[in-house]
Design goal:
2 helices
Length: about 80
């Protein structure tokens, strides 16, 4: 499984929400990022079973956003255990 994050500034939330939903990405606004620092960030996140599928969907989202992004990131999930679910 692959997980993708497109990171943007939160000021673009209204511009991004419809496009993200259309491309099947979830949005969240979080305070702080281990690599980017202690600021507020907007994340568009999605999952795919293949790297190529995830990369293609990420590129399609970024092309459709028409706002600047800070980072694009794809992670390969090897373990995701959750208690109580």
């Amino acid at each position: 499984m692959y997980e993708c994050h497109v990171t943007l500034l939160p000021q673009y939330e209204k511009d991004v929400e419809g496009v993200a939903r259309q491309h099947k990405f979830h949005m969240s606004v979080l305070m702080g990022d281990p690599e980017l620092g202690e600021h507020k960030y907007l994340y568009c996140t999605s999952h795919d079973s293949t790297f190529d599928g995830m990369k293609g969907r990420m590129e399609a989202l970024v092309a459709a956003l028409h706002v600047p992004h800070i980072r694009r990131k794809i992670e390969h999930i090897v373990l995701d255990e959750r208690e109580g679910r």
